[in-house]
Design brief:
6-stranded mixed β-sheet; 10 helices; binds guanosine-5'-diphosphate; Rossmann fold
Length: 348
């Protein structure tokens, strides 16, 4: 669905202060089925799967559906590419790279759009994963996947040396499939952005929304900005203080901090009331553009804990759903949960 046709903005059905509640994002639009089918069909002829991740939120920007489909195809050597490393905290990026490198059949590297020669790095990393392939008889066939807005088109354009697909910061723009040869015996196939059947990690919903991985019609900016500030103030509080010229805010609530940002940034309505919506937009945009400096929202250790909590809650939810008869209009999603087949829901 084109973003212009999206229904009016609505809040996501998850709440702050319930960090491990599930956030059912009940959509599974038609083209998702097509993407899934295309992937399943293509995987048998693929040697390496590159997953493009957002270096600021590697765990949250990994789509569990991709892992599921690759497993169904019998597993594939994987290259995790942490893109937008120019915006991420280098220390945390190093932790994530080590985390992925420790996984069997997996290589990892960090990139950014300004990287002049990503092709050489990508080709070398993929070749190392499949040393028995190469040459014209057995070319290396690589599939590149990633969630919307993670930088797939930008990377493909850089690799291709020309502008081949529309890039923009609004997720969910459908792109046609491309195939590019990075060497005579090495080619890369692109896929349209994979959508989530369901987000089970509460923190991931916030991180994806804050980074631009979820369409802006699907969340409430104030809620997302509060979650973002809560997260960022823990490790990077000084950056916020410097950016907005704030006094010590260690005793302030997250709402108080957002209100302070509103006051400093012209977010006051007539009568002196603070405009939290405006402050939320400023905070989110500043995070996205890197105005707070290089920040990563998660470490591997934290993410693994969130994932364990999210999966435990998801299992409980599924057990409850199975124990009661399905209501009319409900279907089973591929993750096994009961979801609305809501064609009118916003894309991620
Ligand atoms: P796609 O939906 O995955 O194809 O994402 P795009 O390639 O359209 O990129 C989404 C946005 O992220 C665009 O505004 C890009 O300019 C920006 N972007 C992509 N890669 C990088 C990167 O490595 N660093 C930074 N700072 N921005 C990037």
């Amino acid at each position: 669905m084109h973003p212009a046709q999206l229904p009016p903005r609505r809040a996501l059905p998850w709440r702050l202060n319930e960090p491990h509640s599930t956030m059912p994002i009940h959509w599974f639009p038609g083209h998702m089925h097509a993407t899934k089918k295309a992937l399943v069909k293509r995987l048998p002829d693929i040697d390496v799967v590159i997953e493009l991740l957002d270096a600021r939120l590697p765990g949250s920007s990994a789509n569990p559906l991709l892992a599921e489909l690759v497993d169904l195809a019998g597993g594939k050597p994987a290259l995790k590419v942490l893109n937008k490393q120019d915006l991420a905290d280098p220390e945390r990026t190093a932790l994530w790279l080590a985390h992925y490198q420790a996984q069997p059949g997996t290589q990892a590297l960090a990139l950014d759009a300004s990287d002049a020669a990503p092709a050489r790095k990508l080709v070398a990393a993929c070749r190392a994963l499949v040393p028995l392939r190469g040459g014209m008889v057995k070319p290396v066939r690589v599939l590149i996947c990633g969630i919307p807005n993670v930088g797939k088109s930008t990377l493909m354009n850089t690799l291709n040396g020309q502008r081949v697909a529309k890039t923009g910061d609004e997720p969910g723009i459908t792109k046609t499939q491309q195939k590019i040869a990075l060497a005579p015996d090495f080619y890369l196939v692109d896929t349209p952005g994979l959508l989530w059947p369901r987000i089970v990690v509460a923190e991931s919903g916030y991180h994806l929304a804050a980074s631009g991985g979820i369409g802006r019609n699907a969340y409430d900016e104030e809620e997302v900005a509060l979650a973002l500030l809560a997260r960022v103030r823990e490790a990077y509080g000084e950056r916020l203080r410097a950016r907005y010229k704030l006094d010590d805010f260690s005793a302030a609530t997250d709402e108080g901090l957002l209100a302070d940002i509103a006051r400093k940034r012209g977010g006051l309505r007539a009568g002196g009331q603070v405009n939290l919506q405006k402050a939320a937009e400023i905070a989110i945009n500043d995070f996205r553009s890197g105005a707070w400096g290089r920040i990563s929202l998660e470490t591997p250790q934290e993410f693994m804990q969130w994932l364990a909590c999210g999966e435990a809650l998801e299992s409980e939810r599924q057990a409850k759903a199975l124990a009661r008869p399905l209501r009319r209009g409900k279907t089973i999603t591929p993750m096994g949960g009961a979801g609305d087949m809501d064609e009118g829901a916003p894309p991620v």
